[in-house]
Amino acid sequence: MCLLLAFFVILSSVAGISNIKNYYNVGQKQPKEITQLPGLDGKPISKQFSGYVTVDKRHDRSLFYWVVHSERDVNNDPVVLWLTGGPGCSSMDAFIYEHGPFKFSFKGGDDGADIVLEENPYSWSKVATMIYVDSPAGTGLSYSRKPQDYSTDNERTVEDLYSFLVELFTMMPELSYQGFYIAGESYGGVYVPLLASKILNMSRSQRGMPINLRGYMTGNGVTDDVIESAGQLEFAYGMGLIDPLTFHRVQEDCKGNYWDVDSDSACALSLKKAYDIFYWVNPYDTLLDCYLSAQKDEDKMTHSAHKDVVNTLSWKAQLGHTVPCANRRVALKWLSLPEVRQAIHAVPVQELSWQPCSDILNYTINTPVSMINTHKELLHAGLSALVYSGDHDFIIPFTATRTWVYGMGLHELSPYSAWKVDDQVAGFTVSFTSGLTFATIKGAGHMAPQTNPKETLHLISRFLDEFR
Ligand SMILES: *[C@@H]1O[C@H](CO)[C@@H](O)[C@H](O)[C@H]1NC(C)=O
Ligand SMILES: *[C@@H]1O[C@H](CO)[C@@H](O)[C@H](O)[C@H]1NC(C)=O
Question: How many other C-beta atoms lie within 10 A of the C-beta of residue 342?
Answer without folding.
Answer: 11
